[in-house]
Amino acid sequence: MARMKFVCDAERCIECNSCVTACKNEHEVPWGVNRRRVVTLNDGVPGERSISVACMHCSDAPCMAVCPVNCFYRTDEGVVLHDKDVCIGCGYCSYACPFGAPQFPASGTFGVRGKMDKCTFCAGGPEANGSQAEFEKYGRNRLAEGKLPACAEMCSTKALLGGDGDVVADIFRNRVVMRGKGAEAWGWGTAYGSRQAGQPPGGKS
Amino acid sequence: MKPRIIIVFLATGFAALGGCTEDPQTLESGVKVDTAAYQGTGYPFAAAGWKPGEKASWEQQLKTRTVNGQNEYTKVR
Predict the structure, then answer these.
(1) What is the pTM of this model?
(2) Which of B37, B41, B70 sits opposite A161 (nearest CB)?
């Protein structure tokens, strides 16, 4: 098995935030904390693009590199997880992460001490798989239930793909081959004409 | 009468303070060993089609689920 990866297809994401909602519901993430969020580029401009962003479970994770207490670990499937019992809430990982994935809840089990919280690829934490302790600290462990991350499975347009990197890459590659690229792709080009597709006002890219 | 009021007052106070507790936290260094996901949870909420403890069947289950759930091109052909 390859590493577990997320891929977000910007041609398909419609900024519905169902991935965000699915994540918050699945893990009972406290108010004000978003393990996943949708970022829109060129908002309001024809050709705007949205992508869903969370922890990307980097192969060479900068959060792991900078953590002073070494609370991070990586599973055999390439999922980057951390131990909240070890985390001191210093926030170095937040500075190091290029995606803004680390969150610092102000409520919940570890909220008052500011333990870091982030996407777990629905793989829980170091506590026993599926236990109440694991759920309270990290949310549900769907991988141990033979399921995939809730965000990817709930994505309404299947823009967000999550799973074995090889399989996800095959799905995405096949999709791009089938639909074409750039203005050839369905979406803006189909709806508004290919000359307008992906072009901001003035026609400059 | 007065001691009884004091006792009731203290008991109420301690009971109220009980709500200020938080879950125990253990100071530890290093990372605990995590159980592999293919070992399953032991609870009956797992997806069907694989056997907990068998890595190969778990991996195949995830691959099948990814293709069936996220690749609609396999459905339209």
Answers:
(1) 0.81
(2) B70
